[in-house]
Every structure is written in structure tokens, then in C-alpha cells.
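Work Package 4 report. The design task specified in the project plan requires that, given a folded chain encoded as C-alpha cells, an amino acid be chosen for each position. We show below one input record used in the internal validation round.
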């Protein structure tokens, strides 16, 4: 393998004429396949670059310099309209055909990245890191924060009144929302070690798992009922054929009229999982770098896995769909799940850090059922026998070793 390819970025692969010829099937050289097998990290970049080339196969032609300058002017105008810093670009007097194609591609990428970042995150409270907080709280649309007491809280919305834990009642009509928010949203923030249940204005029930947050309006208006999620939640959506219910989670959106489903979209996870138990949902995800969207219709007892890195949705049958919502009843059921995944979920639920040894086998799969109403010590004793592990506890950290 030539050393230069080790440092190649996506742009450089796309500008390499030999690579483009191979990606388009005009060259039968086995060099690129060999490179992919030799180095997994470079293989990922090659795979992405090939997808980009194939997406742009109809556009591979020389673009004159004036057209390229117009493209960059459009990009700068886009940035200016949205008060973003313009990218400073030095155009050489001669621009290669491959670089020109990449500039065309950049317009779509820039727009997608801006809209994607603006889509979900702009509706969450600023500078909030769920994983670094120990306090569950409700942030109202006027910015006031209200502490949620206990490890499990309930929030109910009805006729512009918000009830907390069947006790405290807040009149939302008396509040003036922040003027700098495009859509007036309330937000519930649930740190590790806690959970919450919400009843939204339309009758939809939402269970929020540990390490999650949900942005939602006081009242649903317009043609859609739209909420924003980070983390995991189980939804029982109230039926309304005139108003679709949309959940925005990470890079995907789930559109329904009335159904039961679970979404797991933690920032640190590689995949976003949507599991359907009743009704039907449409899962929409961006294609590679935002060039279009993939829409997938899920049927009951199916799971959609969205790979964040590859921007790909995979649908599989899930006969054990109920186990994905067992956490709402205080149970953790798992079937042929990796130990690493099990530990990740326990970290969130009990708000602890679990450290695995460097040689730990993450491919080992286990099945079982844990009672999350028990103490962490009791859960670890059960898991010790099921997974054949040893552990020791030091404060808030659990160290794992194989037997």
C-alpha cells in the first residue's frame, strides 16, 4: 500500500483519478480492495468516498471557474443569512475537475450540517450536559427551572396547566416565553440514575429513561405534533389522524399517527434504535452527508437500526420487542446482547462508571433478566453468575474482570 493513502482524507480520495475510475467501475484494479482489507480505518474512508462518487456519477464533468465562484458565493450567502462565519476559501486559478465536483457536493453538505445541528439541538436548553448532572429538572419555556424530586417523577399537561408528581400545579398561561426561541418549548432533563413519566397535552404518554431529555410544547398546534428527544424514551402516542406525531432524535425522525414504540438515541451510541410494538411508523434518516433521505416503514415487532457513521438504516424482525420497554416496569431483559451493551445500560440506570479490562471480549452474548428495583450490589451479584465475571466496587466505579 502506498504511504500517501494512509493520510488521504475523503476529499483527496475523491480527487484521485485512479480512485474515481475504480469507484465508477472503469478500472478493474484490485489495489483498492487490498487497501481496504489491509487497514480497516482507511477502508471506512474508502467506502464513504466510493458512495460519494456513485452519488455524483452523473455530475462528473468539468465545471468552469465562473460556475465554481458562483457556488461559493451561494455558500457564503447561505452562511450570512444564518449568521454563521463564512468559510474563507482560496480558489486557485486552475481547479481540477474532481475538486469542482467536491465543491458542488459541499453545498449540500453545508446546508445539511447546518439544518441538522439546528434541527434538534436548538430546542434544548443551552449548555446542558445530561450526563454531568445529578438533578432532574423541568425547564419551562420562559427559562425557569423547577427541580424534580425523587428518582422517578411524573409530569402531566392539561389545558395549559402542568402538574408535577400529582401535587404542584403550574399555570402556563401566566408565563411569557423567551422571545429568542422560534418555537416555545418546555424541556424535562433526566440524569443518570433517574427516570420520568410524562402525559402530554394530546394524551400521549412518554416514559423517559435515565440520561435523557425531551423538549415538548405546552400545546400542539399546526399540522404536526412535534417533540425532540435525546436518550431513550417509550411512547404511547394518542391517535389523531389529522395531526401526525413526530419524534426528532439525533439525525432521524419518526412519524406516526398513533402507536407504541421505543427509541434509543444516546449521543455516545453508534446506532439509533427504533423498536415498534403496535401500529406503524415511518423512520426517516439522511443519506450519506445529507444527500436525500431514506424512509423506512416499520411493522409491529420490527427494529430499525440507524448507523450514524454510515448513514444507513437496517430493519430486522424483533420477536422479543417487549424486552426493549421492560425498563418502564423496572426490569431489564436482554436476549443475546453483548456484555458491553448491558454494562452501558446499567451505567445509565444506576449512575455509575463501569470499567472493563483492555482484553475484555465485547462479542460475547448473554441473555437474562435483571430486577432494576434491586440495589446495584444485588444486580451485580446476579450478573456475576450469568456472565461469569468478577467485580469490585470503589466508590462510584465498578471494575470488571473475567473469572
Amino acid at each position: 500500500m502506498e504511504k500517501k493513502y494512509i493520510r488521504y482524507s475523503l476529499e483527496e480520495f475523491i480527487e484521485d483519478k485512479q480512485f474515481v475510475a475504480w469507484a465508477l467501475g472503469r478500472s478493474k484494479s484490485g489495489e483498492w480492495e487490498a487497501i481496504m482489507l489491509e487497514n480497516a480505518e482507511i477502508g471506512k474512508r474508502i467506502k464513504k468516498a466510493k458512495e460519494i462518487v456513485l452519488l455524483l456519477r452523473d455530475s462528473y464533468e468539468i465545471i468552469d471557474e465562473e460556475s465554481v465562484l458562483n457556488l461559493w458565493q451561494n455558500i457564503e450567502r447561505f452562511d450570512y443569512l444564518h449568521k454563521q462565519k463564512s468559510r474563507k476559501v482560496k480558489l486557485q486559478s486552475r481547479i481540477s475537475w474532481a475538486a469542482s465536483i467536491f465543491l458542488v457536493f459541499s453545498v449540500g453538505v453545508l446546508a445539511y450540517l447546518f439544518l441538522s445541528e439546528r434541527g434538534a439541538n436548538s430546542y434544548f436548553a443551552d449548555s446542558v450536559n445530561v450526563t454531568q448532572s445529578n438533578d432532574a429538572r423541568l425547564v419551562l419555556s420562559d427559562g425557569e427551572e423547577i427541580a424534580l424530586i425523587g428518582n422517578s417523577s411524573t409530569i402531566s399537561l392539561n389545558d395549559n396547566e402542568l402538574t408535577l408528581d400529582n401535587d404542584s400545579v403550574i399555570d402556563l398561561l401566566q408565563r411569557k416565553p423567551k422571545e429568542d426561541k422560534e418555537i416555545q418549548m418546555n424541556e424535562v432533563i433526566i440524569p443518570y440514575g433517574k427516570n420520568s413519566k410524562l402525559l402530554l397535552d394530546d394524551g400521549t404518554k412518554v416514559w423517559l429513561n435515565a440520561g435523557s431529555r425531551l423538549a415538548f410544547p405546552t400545546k400542539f398546534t399546526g399540522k404536526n405534533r412535534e417533540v425532540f428527544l435525546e436518550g431513550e424514551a417509550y411512547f404511547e402516542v394518542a391517535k389523531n389522524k389529522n395531526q401526525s406525531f413526530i419524534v426528532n432524535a439525533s439525525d432521524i425522525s419518526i412519524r406516526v399517527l398513533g402507536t407504541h414504540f421505543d427509541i434509543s438515541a444516546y449521543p455516545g451510541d453508534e446506532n439509533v434504535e427504533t423498536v415498534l410494538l403496535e401500529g406503524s411508523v415511518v423512520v426517516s434518516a439522511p443519506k450519506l452527508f445529507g444527500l436525500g433521505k431514506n424512509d423506512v416503514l416499520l411493522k409491529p415487532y420490527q427494529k430499525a437500526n440507524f448507523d450514524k457513521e454510515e448513514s444507513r438504516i437496517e430493519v430486522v424482525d424483533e420477536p422479543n420487542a417487549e424486552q426493549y420497554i421492560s425498563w418502564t416496569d423496572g426490569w431489564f431483559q436482554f436476549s443475546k446482547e453483548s456484555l458491553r451493551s448491558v454494562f452501558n445500560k446499567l451505567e445509565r440506570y444506576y449512575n455509575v462508571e463501569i470499567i472493563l479490562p483492555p482484553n475484555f471480549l465485547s462479542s460475547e452474548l448473554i441473555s437474562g433478566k435483571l430486577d432494576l428495583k434491586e440495589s446495584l450490589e444485588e444486580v451485580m451479584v446476579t450478573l456475576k453468575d450469568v456472565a461469569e465475571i468478577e467485580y469490585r466496587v470503589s466508590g462510584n466505579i465498578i471494575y470488571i474482570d473475567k473469572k
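Residues 241 and 257 are 6 Å apart (CA to CA). Validation will be extended to a larger panel in the next phase.
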